Amino acid sequence: MDSSACSADDTLREHCGVIAVYAPGEDVARLAYFGLYALQHRGQESAGIATADGERLSCLARMGLVAQVFDEQSLTLLGGRLAVGHTR
After folding, report:
1. Alpha-carbon gap, residue 84 to 2, rounded angstroms
2. Do 47 and 85 form a contact (C-beta atoms < 8 A)?
3. In the predicted model, what is the mean pLDDT of residues 67-85?
4. What's the CATH number of domain 14-87, 3.30.1490.100, 3.40.50.10540, 3.30.470.20, 3.40.718.10?
5. Residue ranges of the domains in the chain?
């Protein structure tokens, strides 16, 4: 794509952190949490994790730092074999 064809509206404005975990039998929400914690310098406004087990999708996202958004109880509710996390 020719960069001259892009308008000013097509530029990236955020520098988010994103992590994906695929680990059947492991605590994927906790692994995603630690990954987001390490990536928090990429964004400190909000955080979210979505997990899936092949039949059900669970998601938690809120404003705040990673450690403020997630606690032991919320991570326990996010079961599955894969997770995607995002910090903005």
Report:
1. 32
2. yes
3. 95
4. 3.30.1490.100
5. 14-87
Taking the alpha carbons of 72, 78, 83, 84 in that order, is the dihedral positive or negative? negative
Computed over every residue of the chain, the mean pLDDT equals: 88
Q: Is 59 a catalytic residue?
A: no
- 65 in Cβ contact with 72 (< 8 Å): no
One-letter amino acid of 69: V
How far out from the chain centre does Cα 5 lie? 31
Judged by DSSP in three states, 65 sits in coil
Beta strands (DSSP E) in 1-88 are 17-22, 46-52, 57-63, 82-87
- The answer to whether the beta carbons of residues 69 and 26 sit under 8 Å apart is no
Model's pTM, two decimal places?
Answer: 0.82
Catalytic residue among 2, 11, 16, 28: 16
How far apart, in whole angstroms, are the C-alpha atoms of residue 84 and residue 49?
Answer: 6
